Amino acid sequence: MIEEIAVRYADGFKAADLVDPVLIEGLPGIGQVGKLVAEYMIHMLEAEKIGEIHSIYFPPQVVLDESGLARLARNELYRYRAEGKDLVFLVGDHQSTSGEGHYLLADCYCGIAEDFKVKRIYTLGGFGVGHLVNEPRVLGAVNRPELRQEAEAAGVTFDRDEPGGGIIGAAGLILGLSAERGIDAICLMGETSGYLVDPMSAANVLAILSKLTGVTVDPTKLNDRAAEMGKAIESMVEGEKSKDEELTYIG
Amino acid sequence: MIEEIAVRYADGFKAADLVDPVLIEGLPGIGQVGKLVAEYMIHMLEAEKIGEIHSIYFPPQVVLDESGLARLARNELYRYRAEGKDLVFLVGDHQSTSGEGHYLLADCYCGIAEDFKVKRIYTLGGFGVGHLVNEPRVLGAVNRPELRQEAEAAGVTFDRDEPGGGIIGAAGLILGLSAERGIDAICLMGETSGYLVDPMSAANVLAILSKLTGVTVDPTKLNDRAAEMGKAIESMVEGEKSKDEELTYIG
Amino acid sequence: MIEEIAVRYADGFKAADLVDPVLIEGLPGIGQVGKLVAEYMIHMLEAEKIGEIHSIYFPPQVVLDESGLARLARNELYRYRAEGKDLVFLVGDHQSTSGEGHYLLADCYCGIAEDFKVKRIYTLGGFGVGHLVNEPRVLGAVNRPELRQEAEAAGVTFDRDEPGGGIIGAAGLILGLSAERGIDAICLMGETSGYLVDPMSAANVLAILSKLTGVTVDPTKLNDRAAEMGKAIESMVEGEKSKDEELTYIG
Amino acid sequence: MIEEIAVRYADGFKAADLVDPVLIEGLPGIGQVGKLVAEYMIHMLEAEKIGEIHSIYFPPQVVLDESGLARLARNELYRYRAEGKDLVFLVGDHQSTSGEGHYLLADCYCGIAEDFKVKRIYTLGGFGVGHLVNEPRVLGAVNRPELRQEAEAAGVTFDRDEPGGGIIGAAGLILGLSAERGIDAICLMGETSGYLVDPMSAANVLAILSKLTGVTVDPTKLNDRAAEMGKAIESMVEGEKSKDEELTYIG
Fold first, then answer.
1. What is the pLDDT of residues A138-157, one digit of tens each?
2. A207 and A155 in contact (C-beta within 8 Å)?
């Protein structure tokens, strides 16, 4: 019988080998901001895969790679050994499709953090504002009041009013559920339109996360992608403007 | 593993210390009428928090306070020691997101009432009528025929036809499920448009609940809020009227 | 802890006292045809209530009577002692709100039938055709080929093409699940528009069910209601026609 | 109590009697392509029914045959003894109605394959492209990289970009879940509009499946049906064209 949530570790992996680990969650979400940041870090740091999570709460589908190889939808765990500490990344294809599944999966992630003796979690996400943002801020939330000052010192904005409706999904639930296990957690949310995958917002989150973790990642490629995207949007906007002008001529 | 529904009590709280307790449920609902009444009473009476309820049947999100501190969605229990009896309040962020969850949570609340040896429950809500109401009535429902007279004497209206479709959610289910445990329950529903948070309707419910419980709460602040809201709506209506007049001039 | 499905019998009721019982299911559905027939029979035969079913798969609400008394949504069992056999009726407020709940409840009903040593089940329903029907037929389905002839002899129509999409909900699932327990079942579906409660269709189903069970019920009151409804619809149609004529005059 | 998923085998059937079995899944899906292929093979090969699967995750309804006989929604297993190996077919009325049900059912199917000591599974489906396709390709996916070459040799197309979003439902999940049990699986997806039942696409899938399994099935009747459908569509298109021409004349 299939397990509702199954966690499998790579051969030879031992939680006990982890040194002072920090967990960084970057699952899919608004503007794919968290996913972009975490997967960029994994790529640049050449982090090593240490585990996989499968669940009947993920959408009922398989993912195909470019060669036609199919695999179950999954979340993955990666480890990067930094100086004096390990970064553990949680990334993946999907979040849950049901409310109950969200809780059960987030609880599973927090259980993993506890097993790993994680003392600090960063959850990453986007905060959708409904329009293009020129200088996206990084908004924050914490699961213990004392964490706010540290986050603000790294450039995180705490806004009385935003996000007003709370934080939905893994990035939020992990904050709430890890507090119950005595683990500190900070959520970093990059402002983003909500309509597009947003490397610009991701670059800002990455910069702050680098300060907070002390693990610097060369942001060039992410900035390049953000710059390209910026130009593409600009030329689209220009296109719209010239269309408007043409219409004026016609008028 | 996370519990489907978890109830946690404050340190030192003992159900046995409660004297002749009455349970007052004011969870979110139509016009937030029940929530306004129960939270106003908690505030004015300086009721003491005695417990918290978390559940995977709540929406999968955390709530942020103004300082950016995140916490799980929850329901809360408060206690106020009145003369000769305790008032226990059940309030919170959310009701269940699923039908089954509604039953399981309402059954949990009734289980708490039974553990507390509660003999009387008041469930509070709004009854949406779809238009602004000048003098909102307080409609009632009971889970034992003998309770009706007492409620009517306190000013509750029992209308043959309303609410015709039954009572949905916690305010209704608690009535049905507490009867099975031998606990009396009265539901008080303030008439309300259903479109706005309605302190006017809440003030009427509060007045009747004060008579029924014998615990009087100064209604001034709630009445003030209702008056402000009344003025705001009036000036909106006036605004609409003058727009109509302008249009007439144009015409 | 609340049971997912709870069946409770009246004090003193013993399944062993039932004589050769026949189960008649008339839960809410299209045109309320099945519900009308079963509740009319219960009323006219003064059948005695023998049990109640509650479930978390019903909608999360309570039902109010005209006096403001609330009770949980429920299904009910009634018994009528006819000559040489008992009729057991299954009626109620609601069917399940979820697919899984439909299966679990229908299985519970069949379990009751087996406990009662029921050898024949009639499930009643409406078959929505999308327009007004002047002479509604009673369509049939069976769970054993040999049952068809008996049904046809009583006036049931078996149509190659209808209902093409199968039978949804309790009336259908009981057919399928009772076969697995070796219980014969016939489904009677009165043709109906699907837009209105349809006593005319119900009267036709009642006539056939009387023949099949050998228990005659005076159909006068149901026919009266059907006649009234027929007149009301006729006058509505007339009204529409005269409006059309007026429009013609204008034109 | 009803089982969530129940598998029942024909009397006398023994999994141990199967010789080197191959499982072919053809459940309902896009264009009914998989269902057409598998049911056509069962029909032409006169495969023998060996089992049935019922589940509360199927839609809550019964299926009627033309004589009015009702039966539960089900999946079925058939066996055809080819030279030196058995073909086992999985066909049926429905897939699951819920995400979790999809996982649980697909896992059940893979469990059956494991019990049968199946070493190769073919899952069949349609790939909807949103427009009529003149020469539908058969797209492929595999659950082990080494399988691709064999599939390509039989005429399967592996397209870098399609199907981009993965494969939803049983055809996909069986690929993913069988890999975990060490069973090879190939998915064959016939391109199809997605709007119509598509025997043309099914004929192409059948041709390739015949090559892969070495079990040839006379495709005449399926080709005939495809040809008829092709003509019907052509005449519809012609009809549209002549309407356009008429409109031009009017213009």
1. 999 999 999 999 999 999 99
2. yes
DSSP string, C91-106: EES---SSHHHHHHHH
- pTM (2 d.p.): 0.92
Question: Cα–Cα distance between B113 and A32 in angstroms, integer?
Answer: 45
- Give the ipTM: 0.90
Hunting for tokens 């939803």 — which residue is that?
Answer: D168
CB D89, CB D116: distance < 8 Å: no
How far is residue C16 from each of residues A56, B207, C12, C20, C86, measured CA to CA in Å? 45, 55, 11, 10, 12
- Could you read off the pLDDT of C132-177 as tens digits, one per residue? 888 999 999 999 999 999 999 999 999 888 777 789 999 999 999 9
Inter-chain CB proximity C56 and B96 less than 8 Å: no
Residues of chain A positioned with their CB less than 8 A from the CB of B60? 96, 99, 102-103, 106, 168-169, 172-173
- Asked if D56's CB is within 8 angstroms of C140's CB, the reply is no
Encode B94-131: b = buried (16+ Cβ within 10 Å), e = exposed. Answer: bbbbbbbbbbbbbbbbbbbbeebebebbbbbbbbbbee
User: Cβ–Cβ of B68/A173 closer than 8 Å?
Assistant: no
Of A122, A106, A99, the C-alpha closest to A24 is A122
- The DSSP element (H or E) to which C244 belongs, if any, is helix C220-250
Whole-number Å distance between alpha carbons of B141 and C62: 10
- Residue C169 amino acid letter: G
Note the residue count of chain C. 251
C-alpha C143/C-alpha C119 separation (Å) is 12
Q: How far is CA D245 from the centre of its chain?
A: 41
**pLDDT 10s digits, A186-238:** 999 999 999 889 999 999 999 999 999 999 999 999 999 989 888 888 888 77
At B214, is the secondary structure helix, strand, or coil?
Answer: coil
D vs A contact (3+ beta-carbon pairs below 8 A): yes
Q: Which among C63, C70, C72 has CB closest to B187?
A: C70
- Chain C: residue whose CA lies nearest to D58: C99
Burial of B157 (0-12, 13-18, 19+ CB in 10 A): middle
Q: How do residues C36-54 score in pLDDT, each as one tens digit?
A: 999 999 999 999 999 999 9
Distance (Å, whole) CA B141 – CA C64:
7
Q: C-alpha angle C38/C44/C48, rounded to 5°?
A: 75
Whether A106 sits inside 8 A of B73 (CB atoms) is no
Q: What is the pLDDT of residues D157-203, one digit of tens each?
A: 998 887 777 899 999 999 999 999 999 999 999 999 998 899 999 99
Nearest Cα of chain C lies from the Cα of B213 at a distance, in angstroms, of 20
Rounded CA-CA distance B44/B87 in Å is 13
CA–CA distance, D53 with B96 (Å, rounded to integer): 34
Q: What is the 3-state secondary structure (H, E, C) of D118-141?
A: CCEEEEEEEEECCCCCCCCCEEEE
Chain B meets chain D (3+ C-beta pairs below 8 A) = no
Q: Which residues pair with A189 in a beta bridge?
A: A125, A139
Q: Check B62 against A96: CB less than 8 A apart.
A: no
Query: Tens digits of per-residue pLDDT, D92-128?
Result: 999 999 999 999 999 999 999 999 999 999 999 999 9
Residue A57 contacts D where some CB pair is shorter than 8 Å: yes
b/e D166-194 (16+ beta carbons within 10 angstroms → b): bbbbbbbbbbbbbbbeebbbbbbbbbbbe
> Shortest Cα distance from D233 to chain A (angstroms)?
32
Q: Per residue in B163-216, pLDDT tens? A: 777 899 999 999 999 999 999 999 999 999 998 899 999 999 999 999 999 999
